[in-house]
Amino acid sequence: MKKRMLAALLLSALLFTISGCGEKSLLNKKEPVSLTIWHVYGEQAGSPMDLLVQEFNRTVGQERGVQVKVTGTSSASKIGGYLKEAQSGGQEVQEMPDLFTCHISDATALGEENLVDWHDWFTEEELSDFVPGFLSDGMADGRLLIFPVSKSTQLLMCNGSGFARFSDATGVGYDDLATWEGFYDAAGKFYDWSGKPFCALDYPIRAVELCAMERGSGDFYTENGWYDTDNAVFKESWMQFARSLAQGHVVVSDLYSNTQVMTGDVVCGLGSSAAILYYNDTVTYPDNTQEPMDLHVLPMPKTAGADALMTQAGVGLCAYKTTEQKAEAAALFVRWLTEAERNLDFVAQTGYMPVRNGAFDAISDYDNFPAPAAAYESLYAALKTMREDYVPVSEPRFEGYYGKVSVLYDGLRQLQQELPARAAAGEDIDALAEETWALFCSIR
């Protein structure tokens, strides 16, 4: 991580920062307090978050008497379940961590009274330097339960080498992928040209939602945390996706689309901006031939003629409420972690969006991207376009929502194994797409 200007001054300021309220510190260098953390920022050795934890421990943590230990890493979709298990206190589950990354729905499921309210530890002046929408995304009943560390959105990541051959043969270019109409048309042409699906989608329900909103669907959520299946605009948005799925033009990813792009099963993946952390420099095909990935990152498609929407996703940091000393220690770590230049370094290494005002502008001049730098530059160019031209929309926060989505995706993966063959045999495409809608409607 690059050297920081005025590092000594910033470190000194942190050492004398006690809390947002200016109370006497409960921390003692001679009797250090230990914090455990679960996070989602890479399970590989030397993940960016793990390296930051190590840096904190040997600097500010050592000076103030706080040591942070990573005791768990997993996906955001799984951590919520693990937290509920840990909270139950069973003998065969991990102990509840002091700090953890999660979605707001998972946080509230733990009980708001069991979590630290970051308002108690950060002043309004401090919070004013963070993107307001990112702060509100972590709020529940007036409490700031999730502190923003990074935010992601969804965009299109393409195997540039494979797409170039497709483009030369068909005339389809990257510009054609700017709209949903052009995206699905390109997917059909790619399938006709190659016999393979064009794109693997990690979160198809979110793509359907945003497309429906852009078309003027209005509110389509129900009280039980699912969707109003009588909403005609929402259904048509679903059917646009489902017709493409039924013909094999697109697929629901096995788990994360980067794997299928890297093995040549598809030429592009629609998923989180943070997925760039898991892309290789090369594509390795089933016959073991390889070629450069030449990763091209594009904004998420939008509905032609409509105001573009983008998902505002990504977890933040929660602190489980135990002692005031641990709460202060957690606030010290979070304050250090989200310091402006450090946060910029962190997101630039991981494919996320920075959380402080003005930090996005600084990315334009950033020169310390990891290799391959061209891929990261492409990513942040796409993110910059979306930040300027798209309206961010928070994800649903119903308790149990992600469990229902997981059931839906498992069902779609089963259907996509048979639907394309039936379509090729002459069955009606709309009828096949209706089978996916029936699956969707069965989830309550």
Describe the structure.
The protein has 444 residues and is α/β, with parallel strands linked by helices. It has helices spanning 7-15, 48-58, 60-64, 76-88, 104-109, 124-127, 132-136, 160-170, 180-194, 204-214, 232-246, 257-262, 324-337, 340-350, 359-363, 373-389, 401-415, 419-424, 429-442; strands at residues 33-39, 66-73, 99-102, 139-140, 143-144, 147-148, 154-158, 199-201, 250-252, 268-272, 282-284, 290-292, 296-299, 309-312, 316-319, 391-394. A hairpin with a 5-residue loop joins strand 11 and strand 12 (290-292). It has a five-stranded mixed sheet. Strands 9-8-10-7-13 form a five-stranded mixed sheet. Helix content is 43%, strand content 14%. It has two domains: 7-151 and 313-368, Periplasmic binding protein-like II (D-Maltodextrin-Binding Protein, domain 2, 3-Layer(aba) Sandwich), CATH 3.40.190.10; 154-312 and 381-442, D-Maltodextrin-Binding Protein, domain 2, CATH 3.40.190.10. The model is unreliable at 1-20 (pLDDT under 50). The protein has 19 helices and 16 strands.
> Biggest β-sheet, characterized?
5 strands, mixed
Number of strands: 16
- Average pLDDT, all residues: 90
Strand line-up across the major sheet? 2-1-3-15-6
Question: What would you call the shape?
Answer: globular
Number of separate domains: 2
**Euclidean distance between termini CA atoms:** 47 Å
* Number of helical stretches of at least 4 residues: 19
* Helix and strand composition category: alpha/beta
InterPro entries: Bact_solute-bd_prot1, SBP
Keywords: Signal
Signal peptide: 1-21
Protein name: Extracellular solute-binding protein
